[in-house]
Amino acid sequence: MQKMYEFFIEKKKFETSEESLTVKQILLDFGGFNPEENVLVLKHGNELRELSNLDEVLEMKNGLHFTVFSKKPNPVS
Question: What is the pTM of this model?
């Protein structure tokens, strides 16, 4: 039986049997975010680590939490 890894993107739960995934796979394949317009951010405790290298390989662990930052400039109101 394959081990399943549970992780979260913007508090939404995902599962994979892959032991490692690239930043691009997590953003695009799981989260459905455009990698050209968004940055994946790993949340670890109170630390936020921007994962700007789309080819970076992450070892999957249960309970990883990611958030997504937009690269688009915020409109000034």
Answer: 0.89
CATH of the domain at 31: 3.10.20.30
Structure tokens that stand for 48 in this block: 């936020």
The dihedrals phi and psi of 73, each to the nearest 5 degrees, come to -65, 145
Lookup: tokens for 58: 């992450």
Tens of pLDDT along 13-48?
Answer: 999 999 999 999 999 999 999 999 999 999 998 999
Longest dimension (CA), the chain: 54
Contact, 68 vs 32, CB < 8 A? no
Which residues are bridge partners to 37 per DSSP?
A: none
Do the beta carbons of residue 24 and residue 54 sit within 8 Å? yes
